[in-house]
Amino acid sequence: MDLAFFGVQLLNGFQYGLLLFLIASGLTLIFGIMGIINLAHGAMYMIGAYLAFDLTQRLGNFWLAILIAVPIAVLLGLVIERLFLDTLYKRDHLYQVLLTFGLILVLNEAQRIIWGGDVHSVALPEPFTGAIALTDNLQYPVYRLFVAAVCLVLAGAIYWIIRHTRLGIVIRAGAVNREMVEGLGINIRTLFTLIFSVGVALAAFAGMMAAPLSSITPGMGDSILITCFVVVVIGGIGSIKGAFFGALLIGMAETFGPVLIPSLASMLIYLIMALVLLIKPRGLFA
Amino acid sequence: MLHRYPKRVTVLLLAGLALLIAYPAWGPAVFGESSAFFMEKLTLMLIFALFAVSLDLLVGILGLVSLGHALFFGLGAYTLAMASPDFSAASLWWMLPLVMLVSGLVAAIVGLLVLRTKGIFFIMTTLAFGQMLFYTVSTSSMTGGTDGVFIMFRPSLAMGETPLIDLDNPLTFFYFCLALLVAVYLILRALTRSHFGQVLDGIHDNEHRMQALGYATTGYKLIAFVVSAMIAGVAGMLAAMQYGFANPAQLGWHHSGEVLMMVILGGMGTIFGPILGAFAYELLLYFYEHLTNHWPILMGLTIIVAVLVLPKGIAGLLLDPPGRQASLLGRLGGGKDNLAKGRQTSASDSDGKSVGKSAGEVSS
Q: What residues form the membrane-spanning segments (chain B) (predicted)?
């Protein structure tokens, strides 16, 4: 493996890891603050990708499509939270797992009804269609760099909101002691609705950003969900910082695994997770 | 052991058993031409009931929600598929112990890792281990990749050269699965009533207290995990015999989710509930599949509604009928409290060994 190829893989791993972070951050926030395991998170990623595909076809413009798709995703999260999760907060994780499992079936089938079972793709949007030449015969697509940049900005924004704003203080306090926050006169229900909608919308947004990079298939949400679970478990459930470094680690592992150790590639991330759990049963940053 | 449940439960279970045993008498009259087909369906339901019962030992009795139980189901199926000779039938005398050994060994290794975790970590790590095997099997050419492996001959059960029973005969296989389910049910009932079961119950309610009482709780949990995995492995082997193949889908986490739904739909922690749940789930599935191509939407909605309004499942309705005690609102409300109550009714023991029953806190 020469240096240029190594560099491309490194960039790929970094970009994929950042995309994973977008999805995993929502997952870890929803669990850390609301105590809800959301299995339907992967389905939202899939729906994001399909929304991007559908609206791009209708409107002829990827950016306009995203501008419309994001509010749709937020709205969907809002409806799901208000309709189904309201009664689940006090229940055992078991019921959350099952209810969101039921949601997966519904959302996956809804996708099939609306968009069918075909594989779709979205063209690279202007002005990021080009590629940067790394060496004479190696190029790197600009859109991937753009996605990485957007993810980095969003990661920074999430970190800043949680660390340095009043809303962030309430969120952190709510994660530690829900009753106390309520006792201080803060409406935790509104906060929950907000967190869930934004968390789910982050997953959908990741799906939209990924749409031009990978093929859009009916089962795409399932595999990404499991990968993000691994990320969250490695980083420590509820920890944004953990999700960030966990996502980068898994992004690198998924990119370099097939090249360096092909025989173990398909189970590499699970091996890493098992190893982390052996050393730190609650994750790296918990 | 049955007499500790209210009479209506015992009556219902025995009636169900009698109905199944007598299927050859009434099946053809009711279903006519498709009677044989329905018997194969019933056989599958029995197999899934066995699978659901095994998971109940973890979820209902021990309070550990596993989202990777299909790992052991699939392991049983693949063990049969890989260990069967190509051109003759394997003997069940060594196939059954082999399947139990393999699933038990893997469960011991996986258990040592996952039992270090609790609550949501347990859910996620079991899920991850299930997927680990799923991806290994579906990418390896040795196990036939995504196509799976076909099983040319069902294992036979013979004494020396003379065959004891003919497992290739659908009716015989149906009775064989039924007998296995009844046996496992009775064993698990005895197990939950034993001192061992009491300790598991105690761990469910308050593990720290059990540790303070001097129990090595991890050992108990590991044994329960291994036993549960062995039963699931046997169920997987039976399923592979019935289908005639082992397939990665049998290992996938969707399958784990389905069996978890059977346990909840039936009523967890009761052992008999998940059997009812498996039948109810499969019947609903069959009904929905015939109703529309988009049956997953109906199944998904059913799951959502069941979780919202029927947290204690069918067994909860039987043990604690709506009109009798709890109001609907009460049942909709605190899940954990009601569960603890349900478990109390089902486990009101005479030997006075029940430990820490009132403490409902389980760290999440």
A: 42-65, 70-87, 93-115, 127-153, 173-191, 212-239, 259-285, 297-319
